[in-house]
Amino acid sequence: SNYQPVPLGAVGEIFIGGVGNARGYLNQPALTAARFTPDPFSEDSKSRMYKTGDLARYLPDGNLVYMGRSDDQVKIRGFRIELGEIEARLQEHPLVSEVVVVPLGKGSDKRLLAYMVMTRTEEHEPQSTAILRSHLATRLPEYMVPAAFVRLDVFPLTPNGKLDRCALPTPGDDDYARQ
């Protein structure tokens, strides 16, 4: 938000600048103004940076780890949460093949739900929700741990092959994590 590099390991938005960067969107001045910002790191006053909307964090070796999109941020109980970070931590667990985390509810009733395709097709042990909750609790603050973990065989897709968030099922009582 302040157009400064983030510390090593912290999540920040990726901006692209330099020679060869586009000057904006053709015939779309409002979108150009929103996405192309003055480059504070260039000596050229006309230089612009492109605001990608992608979030990443630096590794100690200088590589970037993609963390999701900035528009995947939600605010729950006063905390700003990057859904992609929760998804990345769940994806690290060997039980999880694919995952999407979504908010449910409004205002003070808003909570997080994790929808997952598991790595094995056989019936998963009943404690898998507790295992995944514990996995996240050691890696993320409590407010970032989903309230429910819903197992699916496959994710519902739209006709163009994208995740159909509207078709995700409502969690059942057994999907909610017990503390």
Automatic annotation (TrEMBL):
The cross-references to SUPFAM superfamilies, in alphabetical order and at most eight, read: Acetyl-CoA synthetase-like (SSF56801)
Task: Give the organism the record lists.
Answer: Mortierella alpina
Record Pfam families: AMP-binding_C
A single BP term in Gene Ontology: secondary metabolite biosynthetic process
* InterPro entries xrefs: AMP-bd_C, AMP-bd_C_sf
Q: Identify a single GO molecular function assigned to this protein.
A: phosphopantetheine binding
Q: Which part of the chain is the AMP-binding enzyme C-terminal domain?
A: 85-162
UniProt keyword annotations, A-Z: Phosphopantetheine, Phosphoprotein
Classification of source organism: Eukaryota, Fungi, Fungi incertae sedis, Mucoromycota, Mortierellomycotina
Q: Which Gene3D superfamilies does this UniProt record tie to the protein?
A: 3.30.300.30, Luciferase, Domain 3
Q: Does the keyword Phosphoprotein apply?
A: yes
Instruction: Specify whether Phosphoprotein is a keyword of the entry.
Output: yes
Q: What is this protein called?
A: AMP-binding enzyme C-terminal domain-containing protein
Gene Ontology cellular component annotations, sorted alphabetically: cytoplasm
